[in-house]
Specification:
The protein is α+β, with helices and mostly antiparallel strands. It is 41% helix and 19% strand.
Amino acid sequence: MSEKVTMYGADWCSDCRRTKAQLDGLGVAYDYIDVEADAASAEAAQRISGRINIPVVVYPDGSHQVEPSNPDVEAKLQELAIV
């Protein structure tokens, strides 16, 4: 199990930019994977979520959220005692 949050996204995606800004603002350590830069990463994100939507945020407990709102991300981070 990873100790970090992983976020699959793309620079052109406004929801991805919003989620990155939120994670940065909260001081959360995360791995950012650009699905545009690597087709295998895009396929991995799709396998995880079952959808083609981004961002896909994967948490250390193995759960994930697709296109989450800021309150949803913060609630999950609080649940996992990351923030």
